[in-house]
Description:
The protein is mainly alpha-helical. The protein has a single domain (2-187), classed as Beta-lactamase, CATH 3.40.710. The protein is 22% helix and 6% strand. It contains five helices and two strands. The protein has a two-stranded antiparallel ribbon with strand order 1-2. A hairpin with a 5-residue loop joins strand 1 (146-150) and strand 2. The chain starts with a helix and ends in a 12-residue tail after the last helix. Residues 193-199 have low confidence and may be disordered.
Amino acid sequence: MTTLQLVEHGAFALDTPVIGYLGLEETGISTAVTPHHLTHTSGIADDADEEAGERYEDLFLERPNYSVMETADYLPQFVGKPPNFAPGGGCRYCNVSYVLVGLMIEQATGSTYREYVSEHVFARAGMNRSGFFRMDIVEPDVVEGVEALEDENGGIVGWRRNIYCYPPIGGPDGSAHVTVGDLCASTGRCRTDAFSGPL
Length: 199
């Protein structure tokens, strides 16, 4: 949504070369990548390629997760990796595509990605309880994520918090928190009588 807002305002186009716009020519990312490709057809290697068996939490074995606080902090995790294919030459999920879009939004607006989304998406849609909340600070009414611990047969034997597996605050690649009430208010499509029984 934020990308299309800025395209509509003429900040950049869907065919603007991303690398030139951001001044990232000294990376392994193709100069042919455009915002249009950042819908998983860019060929950019993800920071943690789960399809190839990489785990996101392994990014933080040598580098603390607290070192990734701003959008540009994600860059060392992927800019040196060889691409999976030429831009437009295939389709493969790529989380870091959103990081590049976020950097374009920051370049165009002079705001951080989180500030821009909070002001131009959440606030405009009346989503007053939504935002990018730090995982190391207790935020009222926010559910904390946990992951299953499995035995060798895939049975769940326990649970662990995943706060050390991800940056402490979300960015363009995810971790915005929204409430059901905010989603209802922004779309006008929720019905309070739609649920029967326990949730």
